[in-house]
Amino acid sequence: MSHCKDCKKELLNDEIAIYKRLINRGAEEFMCIDCLAKYMEVEPDDIKEKIVHFKKIGCTLFG
Ligand SMILES: [Zn+2]
């Protein structure tokens, strides 16, 4: 089980996938949606919308 590298929260598969999609496909450490939103200077809802979007277009990172 992976944990957010900032706040140590347990990560969902979607959080790992969106981090890979947006930040670094080869990453071995990830961030939760809240920390990723802060890092990217967007709202957590913006990240959630991106997750929905990438799932809809069939991105293979999202299982
Ligand atoms: Zn976090």
Span from first to last CA? Answer: 16 Å
CA-atom Rg in angstroms = 11 Å
Main structural class: mainly alpha
Query: What is the H-and-E element order?
Result: HHH
Poorly predicted tracts of residues = none
- Oligomer, anyone? single chain
**Major sheet:** none
How would you state the average pLDDT, rounded?
96
**E-strand count:** 0
Q: In DSSP terms, counting alpha (H) and pi (I) runs of 4 or more, how many helices?
A: 3
What percent of the residues sit in helical stretches (DSSP H or I)? Answer: 40-55%
Ligand types = zinc ion
Domain module count: 1
In terms of DSSP E residues, the strand content is: under 5%
**Overall 3D shape:** globular
Map the helices and strands.
Elements: H1 13-22, H2 33-40, H3 44-56
Helix pairs in contact: 1-3, 2-3
At a glance:
The chain is 49% helix and 0% strand. By secondary structure, it is mostly helical. Helix 1 (13-22) packs across helix 3.
Description:
The chain has 63 residues and is mostly helical. It has one domain. 49% of the residues lie in helices and 0% in strands. The chain contains 3 helices and no strands. It is globular and about 30 Å long. Bound molecules: zinc ion (ZN).
